[in-house]
Fold:
Amino acid sequence: MILVEEGQSPLILCLPHSGTEIPNAVEKRLNATGRLQADLAWRLERVFDFHEDLDATVLRSSISRYVIDLDRDPETPVSDAGDPAKALCPVTTLDGKRIYQEGEEPGPTEVEQRSLLFHAPFHKALRRQIDRLLRSHRKVIIVDCQSMRSHIKGVTDKGLPLVSVGTNGGTSCDPDLRNLLVGSFKGEQGYSVSVDEQTLGGYITKNFGRPDRGIHTVTLLLAQRSYLRHESPPFEPDKTRITRLRSVLTESMSRLVDWTGVTGTSTDGSGPGADAPSESRQTSAVNDMDGGEDEPPSAQAAPRSDAGTEEIIPVDPMTLTQVGRSQTAKVEDGPITPLLVAE
Structure:
């Protein structure tokens, strides 16, 4: 399920790895390591629950990254499933431990079905929010919010900085925006920061970042020690750490919003200074099964006739239709049937 809470400021907080749900047809094939789900951005939504103060839009999914990684390229071949740095539907943890029982890994058909069910609708929802906000602002900022364990063998052997910023080598956002974000953390005691080192940014940052069109994206990777008591099950939040981190992030995100020059940035006279409905926020749970082709984000998006409340299509991912293993051995010709996940 895709969860969207709409705000009116030019800031989108995107949480692609905070979901924990695994369909029954997938969960029973995981081994003990897989069921721990150690690589999720555990409790991260609690850190960013200040979004209403900034009137920011929040977009997240309830599905686990062990089902599908929403921050990976959907064209990634299944042969890369064993590479945790590339895998769309991973078969190992970030440090290379298997998460499936022997012979239970997803095949090409299942990977394509998961992409249709979870990846495509998430990115379509993100594009809708970008287009919506570009009708009121000249600049829109997408922050790809992630978190990771501080020490992962083969990944963060030297330890993860408290804050890692990724801008795809400086191409996904304006340099001034990057410097503003980094500077907001460097002034805080005890906060270590890296830029385009631990992460260059994932698919969201690289795919949606179009500074020339007014779309600025940045990945913000937090070490989980910055807000969790222990970086292991049950991944218990630390109230003191969360309070401090939330304060720092609120100030940082507020600076980003101010950077866009909110006042007078409307392209049609309907920006923050214009008359607006008293109800500024809108929450929806979306599971979009539209199989239409992806459209690139556009800074000149045409007004939508259905710009009001989005249709809610409830689908329970825990009760997906199951198909036998023989149906997933290879990619079949013809259309993929929705709501199909292999046993």
